[in-house]
Amino acid sequence: MFRTLISAARGAVSTIATNGQKIQNFYQPSLVQQAYQRQFSLLSSQTPCRLFNQPQELKNQVVLTNTRNVTKYSFRKGKRKSVKAVIKRFYRLNWGVWIRTLCGRHKRLWKKSPPRKRRLRQHVFCSASQSMLLDKMVCDYWRKPKYFVDDPYNPYHTREEFSITSRKPKPYFPPE
């Protein structure tokens, strides 16, 4: 109990500043004593509701920043490491877009209609910003084109309907 009181007092004292200033976190015994007295006065009082409202006050003072644990460089060769979840869940076509399946395609199929089941079996494209992010999360090996025997995605690796990425020459029909 005393350990939580000290951490509560330290959390109340810590201030998070912006513009590159350091986080100041120091120990003040007066705040520990105040928190200690406050906790025991709340325990002895008849209203237990205030005890649960108090951590929210401390929670509002601490600002958390989101972080991602990406291995930027490996220890042995210094190469960038791929995120395994991207390789497992997505597939990259040769023209740069990533495809994925819809979530819930194996869940509760007994209550889904046949058109919805058909849509769940299909793949969808990721957006351009998502594709750029996924390209950053994998190494060069997964960005290069791969040629497999009997690849089911082979017709989709080229994008002939778009004029910039089309490879085959369009047929010429002379005017009559």
From TrEMBL:
Q: Which InterPro entries match?
A: Ribosomal_bL35-like (IPR021137), Ribosomal_bL35_sf (IPR037229), Ribosomal_bL35m (IPR019338)
Which GO annotations describe the biological process of this protein?
translation
Q: Where in the cell is it found?
A: Mitochondrion
Cellular component per GO? mitochondrion; ribonucleoprotein complex; ribosome
Q: Specify the domain of life of the species encoding this protein.
A: Eukaryota
The regions listed as transmembrane in this protein's record are: none
Q: Does the keyword Ribonucleoprotein apply?
A: yes
Q: Which Gene Ontology MF annotations are present?
A: structural constituent of ribosome
Q: Does the keyword Aminoacyl-tRNA synthetase apply?
A: no
What does the UniProt keyword field contain?
A: Mitochondrion, Ribonucleoprotein, Ribosomal protein, Transit peptide
Family membership noted in the UniProt record: Belongs to the bacterial ribosomal protein bL35 family.
- Protein's recorded name: Large ribosomal subunit protein bL35m
**Species in which this protein is naturally found:** Rhynchophorus ferrugineus
